[in-house]
């Protein structure tokens, strides 16, 4: 059972106001909108659901769980961070993950109390990229939050950021944005237990069109987002 204190911490960590720059990224949605692949609630729901089930959302969920389980095993966390950093198909998606991860680690250490595990992990990755999913897993474990609830919050935040981008890009009304998030609730609910049960060696992605939109976004003539 999640306590009110734990819930407060999670709501803060995954709030749009948490200063990690998530609003700057669209994970390829910007190009998908420009080319007509994403145009309304239905296509947006399908696009994000695929990312959550078969793309970066799925991989991040498994890696977050593994980082949580690693505790203060720095060798294991170093390995997971390297793997997560390499598990992005494009330069922009890699930047999306590692820029947010570095900011998340820095802000959480500064604002949410001392943690020897977080400090050791920060020192370990001082000159190396810090993927967001691994940073969240380390922080959640250090603060003894329930991993199942953390996974649901992480995936919701992932989806909500893409919905927010689409609301501005399509453009989509705020009500339709919320309809999309409502449609994605059972998707997130089905992914969490699967991620908890998935061994790392069985994890993989199958989202080539998402990677392609990210590649094309790198040279898109007009851009509002960094990915």
Automatic annotation (TrEMBL):
Its main location: cytoplasm. The keyword Cytoplasm applies. GO terms for cellular component: cytoplasm. Coiled coil: none annotated. Transmembrane segments: none annotated. It is found in: Cytoplasm. One of its GO terms (molecular function) is nickel cation binding. Signal peptide: none annotated. Pfam families: UreF. Keywords: Chaperone, Cytoplasm, Nickel insertion. Required for maturation of urease via the functional incorporation of the urease nickel metallocenter. UreD, UreF and UreG form a complex that acts as a GTP-hydrolysis-dependent molecular chaperone, activating the urease apoprotein by helping to assemble the nickel containing metallocenter of UreC. The UreE protein probably delivers the nickel. Belongs to the UreF family. This is Urease accessory protein UreF. It comes from Ferrovibrio terrae. The gene is ureF.
